Amino acid sequence: MRLRLRHVLVLFLAATACEGLFEPEFPPMALTLEPPPEYRVWWEVVESCSGRKASFDAVSWFRVPAGHLEVRGESALGAWFVSGNRIALADGFRNQAYLVRHEMLHSILRDGSHPKEYFQGACADEVICGRECKTSSALPGAIELSLDALEVDASLFPLEPSLGRDGGQATVVVTVRNPNEANAYVPAQSFSAARCAVGFLMESVPELARAELDCRYLDYMDDGRIYFRPGESRRLVFEVDLRTPTYGGAPFPAGRVTVSAIFADNVRGTQEVLIRP
What pLDDT digit, counting tens, does each position of 232-245 carry? Predict the structure, then answer.
């Protein structure tokens, strides 16, 4: 199986560590951290995938010099502490979105363990699943689906994007869903000729030349198949700076934009969103 880069990164360096039955000791070298504006956007992403709401402002943030964040004697990159609702992040990894969202999920759930329905289910594609992540395997009795049979859409966060708020940061989540009540798969070779396998396109309505585009691939198994459980969604998460799009080269103006998913070069699930000043 092709392992996701973010999983390899964490498992290679050090697993994220979180509270279990006993809360770990808060690192004595922790320094107060002013959360960057994109953290609020990532918080909305985790609220959405988990279906739970919590106060971002109730969290206290800290940074820890590299090598000084330990949980039960093991080096860690991040940890959530129930006492004081505190999140500590190792220096050098404070901008790792999947790591930060992992700790956010703990805070939102108010749970230091890793409930499978959230960490390996509802939010599996938004967060690092850490040491409890299990290797996927081929699904028995899976039926082959055409690409047209999968439901595809794109969602923009924050729900009320703004150029001035949250530092102009945004996140696009592209969702690919199996609508069938059976195990299913699509051959990875279905995407082999596509210039954009799975991605998104954001365009200014009044000025189409102002646009942002990004593309990636869904993970597939060694047998060359992308598997879906009944009703399962697979998601790709893209970070966007509305002020400096990489594709169009000019910042988006305040006003209407369209956000579309791209699936094997086909535009799917277009929606219109208002970007505020």
Answer: 999 999 999 998 87
Spatial strand order in the sheet of 233-241: 151-157, 169-177, 233-241
What domains appear along the chain, each with residue ranges and CATH number? 5-132 (3.30.2010), 143-275 (2.60.40.2360)
Dig out the tokens for 198 from the structure. Answer: 């799975």
CA–CA separation, 83 vs 35, rounded Å? Answer: 19
Which pair of tokens denotes residue 122? 């509802």
Q: 174, 254, 252: which is closest to 212 by C-alpha?
A: 252
Find the angle CA(70)-CA(88)-CA(171) to the nearest 5 degrees: 130
SS (HEC) of the chain: CCCCHHHHHHHHHCCCCCCCCCCCCCCCCCEECCCCCHHHHHHHHHHHHHCCCCCHHHCEEEEECCCCCEECCEECCEEEECCCCEEEEECCCCCCHHHHHHHHHHHHHCCCCCCHHHHHHHCCCCCCCHHHCCCCCCCCCCEECCHHHCEEEEEEECCCCECCHHHHEEEEEEEEECCCCCCEEEEHHHHCCCCCCEEEEEEECCCCCCEEEEEECCCCCCCCEEEECCCCEEEEEEEEECCCCCCCCCCCCCEEEEEEEEECCEEEEEEEEEEEC
pLDDT in tens, 59-105: 999 999 877 787 777 788 899 999 999 999 999 999 999 999 999 99
Cα separation of 126 and 218, whole Å?
A: 14
Cis peptide bond N-terminal to 158, omega within 30 = yes
Between CA 273 and CA 181 the distance in angstroms is 32
